[in-house]
Amino acid sequence: MNDGTITLPWLVIRQDDNGNRYRVGRYATRAEAQKIADSLDDRGHKQLYWVEQVGQNGQSGTSTAN
Predict the structure, then answer these.
(1) Other residues' Cβ atoms within 10 Å of the Cβ of residue 61
(2) pTM for the complete prediction?
(3) Which residues form the SPOR domain (predicted)?
């Protein structure tokens, strides 16, 4: 984007024991999002964390499970 807006196309998603999914945060790079997902996953809770990329239409698409 060249309109001066900040693009945060990478999401960290959390899924709890009941299958509910929550967006933890949005990040500018996959590496940044993966670092956050890994640090949350390392806490040893039963939740599942992964990284997804938001597509051009605003929908999440590409995912990388931890």
Answers:
(1) 11
(2) 0.74
(3) 11-41
